[in-house]
Amino acid sequence: MLLIIQAILPVLVTAIIGYLLVKYKKYDFGLLNNLLIYIAIPALVLTSLLDQPIVLNEALRIWGAVLIITLGSALSAYLIFRAIKKKHSGLYLPIMFMNTINLPLPLALLFFGNEGLQIAVLFSVPSTILMFTIGLYIGAKKPLKEGLKEVLKLPLLYAVIIGLILNFANIQVSAYILEPIRFVSKMAIPMALLILGGTLATIKLKSISTVILASLIRFGAGFGLGLLAIKLLDLTGLHAAIVLLVSVMPAAVFSAVIADKYKNEESLVSSVVLLTTVLAIIVIPLILSYATSFVN
Predict the structure, then answer these.
(1) Which residue from 29, 82, 155, 229 has the least number of CB within 10 angstroms?
(2) Is a pLDDT exceeding 70 seen at residue 245?
(3) What is the pTM of this model?
(4) Can you give the residue ranges of every domain in the chain?
């Protein structure tokens, strides 16, 4: 456990620096956020997809796990809200969509190396697509077609397509091309953590009882569905460890962005993002100690 805490410490310190910069220096991470989304993350995704050969069957099972966890979380929330006779719409977003970039990518790299990072990237791709389609549909009540248009604007999508094609075709990319991209990719993880910390500095807790319930569903349903996906899809080793790790990540920051943009329970959604991220300080060391048992 001590080794896990020591490894997580750089992640926490970087996020805290981002928090302090926004809270006390009023630093605007707008430019940094664009650099992350349009340059750094696509570079990281592309290089990680090229680092290890990908087995198509294993990739499909990871994507199947994403569907089980995302849709299963929505169903769990629906049943619980119905049982307590509460109606929500925007609140489904932070329950369904976990953070698949800012936290799991650095954690996967720190604990499981480049192979673990590659699996975490494979997990993040369909999750991102679902957020920009189903997530927009739920948050904004807009057609799925409009969400797909948003997905097509993301360089991440094209980095994934190029990376998968080159990997499956076993095409070797020249070091003159790959190494500059790899150099740029190294700024993605610290940048993502700075932005995560900065985002939390702008959020205030509201309606604490509802927020606690939604947070418990995010972690509890995520954990249970992660184990279910591992069992149903016969995942083992590193694949099982990464799926379980990502399944209990805190709510995605972008769920708060969607809710705020379309004014759909934005205070509740932002509060769930904040609380789950704070609770992740306790949850992540526990889940890492369990997830590592799959690879030992």
Answers:
(1) 82
(2) yes
(3) 0.82
(4) 2-294
